[in-house]
Amino acid sequence: MTGLLLRLAGPMQSWGEHSAFGERDTLAFPSRSGLVGMFAAAQGVGREEGLERYDGLRLLVRVDARGVRMTDFHTVGGGLPRERTVPTAEGKRRPEGATTIVTRRAYLADAVFTVAVSGPGSEDIGRSLLSPHWQTYLGRRSFVPDPLLVLRVQAPDPEHELRTAVPLPRRRVPQGQRTVEVELVSEQVSTGAADTGGRTVLNDVPRSFASAHRRYTSREVLVERTALSADLVSDSIRQYQERLLAYVKEHR
To answer: How many other C-beta atoms lie within 10 A of the C-beta of residue 129?
Structure first.
């Protein structure tokens, strides 16, 4: 089955998994809910519509650059009259002196991920991402992706392509070393993987994006280090950009 290859890169991205209003976390890699949200936006799927169409998709994430985890300090409602501040859950207004809400929002700066998407409908998703119905973003609406979001729409084996052909950003490779280690985040968790320590359960499978009743279920993923050919690593930022562009031109 053909599949899709994406490159998620930008100044900032955030992939929350258990965020509350005041504390917005981020995973160290793209979440399934964040990616499904991106696909749904590109295809014009409304918040009230079902998400079952994405259940058959399989995701494999390659961590090309981990980025730097940072946290911003935000305030909401500061300096406004009480009647214009954020209401409480009961619809009332907060008392004087408590109208400003403090939030902390985590994000990844300068991170880069390559994602292989396979399964029913992946080709349609790829075409929609090239001409999206609604703007795509990297976890939050202000975090826009770099160009070359879509690397390839009809890869015969996207997971193999991710491991063997898609260029890696510049990194230090000792002279004579023929492989480099990268992290892969896989949904194909075998029984024998229990002893690796890389298994984790995430509550990031979206069942509804409706504003009044968002719902998520859990999935198990395996995060493991894998050796790839050092030939995939670029010597400079410019070479990396040129190799990415050449890869895209070859397969579009």
So the answer is: 21
